[in-house]
Amino acid sequence: MKYLLIINILLFTGGCSTLNGILSKNTVPEVKPIEIITVEKPAPMYHPPLPENVYPAEIKWKVLNPEVMREYVNNYDNGDAPAMAYYGLTSQGYENLSNNMADIKRYIRQTLAIIKYYRDNDSTREDEDNGQQETN
Fold first, then answer.
1. What is the C-alpha to C-alpha distance for residues 88 and 93, in angstroms, rounded to an integer?
2. Closest by Cα among 97, 108, 101 to 53
3. Secondary structure of 108-127 in the HEC alphabet?
4. CB 47 within 8 Å of CB 125
5. pLDDT in tens, 4-58
6. pTM of the model
7. What is the pLDDT of residues 7-17, one digit of tens each?
8. DSSP 112
9. Dist CA 72 CA 82 (whole Å)
10. How far apart are the C-alpha atoms of 18 and 74, rounded to whole Å?
11. What is the distance between the alpha carbons of residues 38 and 35, in angstroms, rounded to a whole number?
């Protein structure tokens, strides 16, 4: 009775694992080797959308020479002209402004050319487009 009680206690605490070791000859399960395959895939290139087009506001230019300035001052003194502030540029200042605008245009053209180059050379972009044409 004592032996039966010990066997029951062992079976309940150890479960079927103790019988598996006793009954089977192979205690280590068969392990299949794992095959590792490395696939190299380049990371997709990010193509940010181009900024919106620039729509500059209209600018009214008025050239002030001494004759026009005298006429304005006379009309202003008579109360016929509105009080306006005028901004002036020297010819060198205007040349500098023109050169600055030309540099900005050149920079934008070069930047857009670089963006176009990378978009044209991205092979994954053709797969994503699925025949859609790019609009600039």
1. 9
2. 108
3. HHHHHHHHHHHHHCCHHHHH
4. yes
5. 777 777 766 765 555 555 555 656 778 889 999 998 888 787 877 877 887 878 8
6. 0.47
7. 777 766 765 55
8. H
9. 9
10. 117
11. 10
